[in-house]
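Appendix B. Chain record.
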Amino acid sequence: MLHVETTGSGPDLVLLHGWAMHGGLFAPLVEALRDDWTVHVVDLPGHGRSRDDDTPLALAPLAGRLLGQLPVAPWLGWSLGGLVALQAALQAPERVPALLALAATPRFVAGAGWPHGVEAAVFDRFGDELAGDWRGTVERFLALEVVGSRTAQDDLRHLRAHVFDHGEPAPRVLAEGLALLSGTDLVGRLPALAVPSLWLGGRRDRLVPPAALAAAAALAPGGQVRTIAGAGHAPFLHHAGEVAAALAGLVRAPA
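Structure tokens predicted for this chain:
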């Protein structure tokens, strides 16, 4: 079984973390949500307390695995977790009644018809570096995540201090996760998204720029877009209240 930490009270809500991370990094956001939501914080296979789970990071099977273990609930997915959440909402909208894509996009790499991602060479370089120095590769990715944020130094200190709190990620999922980020393209499936979606991110995010959020929201029926001034790729660290408020606007939680 995947490790799922459950806390709070109210309607169910699922949180999915990003590449090489673990659910514990959501602590500031969980604190902002727990009075209104029963929050289910997932450690993806090979990460954190799910390190020994050998489920491959293949998008559709992974989404199916999570759907089978988690309650019916809105899903909030950050970065790579946003891809998984989007896949789950496409696969089983009856089990994922709303989607909050946090600093996430249907396609992370720029290409024909989608100019809103990073260059493929960025992920290629990370992939080439993994085998020789996976720790250094993770460190460099953390630095990329905070570029542009008004609180970049604090964000980077926090991520570096807590990235391995629940154990180191299994080396194989680092390569599998990068392959997901570099190879997934769900842009063409967005018009079929049958649940409300909010594409929320930092206005200073260099990995998922505001243009990517706006383009995704425009393709998803009923999609909404919102940006947080001053935030980079990890807006839940210093803007947890704004993320929680945006979620409440998407799916109204009881007072």
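Further analysis of this model is presented in Appendix C.
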